[in-house]
Design a protein that fits this description.
The chain has 358 residues and is of the alpha/beta class. Helix content is 44%, strand content 16%. A 7-stranded mixed beta sheet has the order 3-2-1-4-5-7-6, with helices on both faces. The chain binds S-adenosylmethionine.
């Protein structure tokens, strides 16, 4: 299946550099591994030779899926004491680069797909929709994906980042996030079999609304404003640019799980809110190499956010114009990051959740 460079406005596909620039998200997955191991120790597993079925929801290029899925294959086989077949379905939105995903799965020496009796495939559909037949799954894993909304109710005026939204726009984003999260949980509650588990690492914020990335997002917003002033993008394009995410508070993650109907079928086993270290800044503090720091921060930002920001460009834009705007965004962000590394210090907040289907 082929991917596309042109996601719909409001979609959150990653850029083609995601496989190379996803160390930050990899660190988040590290926080999820202990929960995954506890899920593997306690969830229901097939004892009759039938396949164990696991979903990886929001897989992107699959780089950060390899370690958790290898743990799943090993964990299931340790539990069953047999070479239980394992089927893995990696899902993402249609705009995802599925070629990159299959390159990772088939080309990486670390890939779990080399194991015997393991069957990997992919599905291009939003996880806010039904993805599997009823009671199909033993386990679902989703890392750093559920903060991407199904749609943005409207642009965040004066900024590209939702956590800077105020007033009615902020409330509309919060309401969209509530609906999306409830839809996600409702579908997974139906798709998981009784005794199955769901492990989610979700982009989060503290109770005061801070995602931990405000400095970086402010810098990016300033640079995009400069691009509009320089005429590289129009002011209408800049005004439309919104990263379609909402970083939920721990309470926003937990609220639907405390009330009927979801509380009846889903049980929260554990949850936590963690702040990730700034890997780029840590490396800079060791090396003093501001240029490498700026390159790392810019690569991360462009891989994660440029496709959704640039989906706001006019459809008639030529490749040369888009590439000039991308180059100017990279140059501006690199310059700001190199000039003041502390100003773009980023400690993404992540909620970790392990849930059992009763
Ligand atoms: C930051 S990447 C995380 C990828 C990977 N799980 C990891 O840990 O590195 C977020 C992924 O979520 C996907 N995503 C966003 N909205 C989605 C949706 N509604 N349904 C499925 N995937 C979605 C994006 O396309 C992207 O590939």
């Amino acid at each position: 299946m082929s991917g596309s460079d042109s996601p719909q406005v409001g979609e959150g596909a990653m850029g083609h550099g995601y496989a190379r620039h996803s160390r930050v998200q990899h660190r988040a997955a590290d926080h999820g591994m202990p929960l995954l191991h506890r899920a593997l120790e306690t969830m229901v597993v097939p004892r009759d030779g039938s396949p164990f079925r696991v979903a990886d929801l929001g897989a992107a290029a699959g780089t950060n899926s390899l370690a958790p899925l290898r743990a799943v294959v090993e964990g299931v086989r340790a539990r069953t004491g047999a070479r239980t077949p394992v089927t893995v379905v990696h899902t993402d939105i249609p705009a995802n680069d599925f070629n990159a995903l299959f390159d990772t799965l088939t080309g990486s020496p670390d890939s779990y797909v080399q194991e015997p009796d393991v069957y990997a495939c992919a599905q291009a559909r939003s996880f806010y929709e039904p993805l599997f037949p009823t009671a199909e799954l033993h386990l679902a894993w989703s890392a750093i994906a559920v903060h991407w909304l199904s749609r943005v109710p409207g642009p965040v005026m004066g900024h590209v980042f939702s956590s800077r939204a105020t007033g009615a726009v902020r409330e509309a984003l919060r309401e969209q996030s509530r609906q999306d999260w409830e839809a996600f949980l409702t579908h997974r509650a139906r798709e998981l079999r009784s005794g199955g588990q769901l492990v989610v690492l979700g982009g989060a914020c503290t109770d005061d609304g801070a995602s931990g990335a405000e400095g970086l997002m402010d810098a990016a917003d300033d640079v995009l404003g400069d691009l509009a002033r320089q005429g590289l993008i129009t002011s209408a394009e800049y005004a439309r640019m919104t990263i379609p995410t909402w970083n939920r508070t721990a309470e926003e993650f937990l609220a639907p799980l405390r009330t009927e109907p979801l509380a009846e079928v889903l049980k929260v086993e554990e949850h936590d809110l963690v702040a990730l270290p700034d890997l780029h800044l840590e490396r800079f503090e060791e090396s003093g190499d501001a240029a490498a720091f700026a390159e790392g921060v810019t690569g991360f930002f462009q891989a994660a956010f440029q496709p959704s920001l640039f989906s706001a460009l006019d459809p008639g834009r030529s490749e040369a114009e888009v590439s000039a705007a991308a180059g100017a965004l990279a140059e501006g962000l690199r310059a700001r990051a190199a000039a003041d590394p502390k100003a773009v210090e980023t400690h993404w907040h992540v909620v970790t959740l392990r849930i059992t289907r009763r």
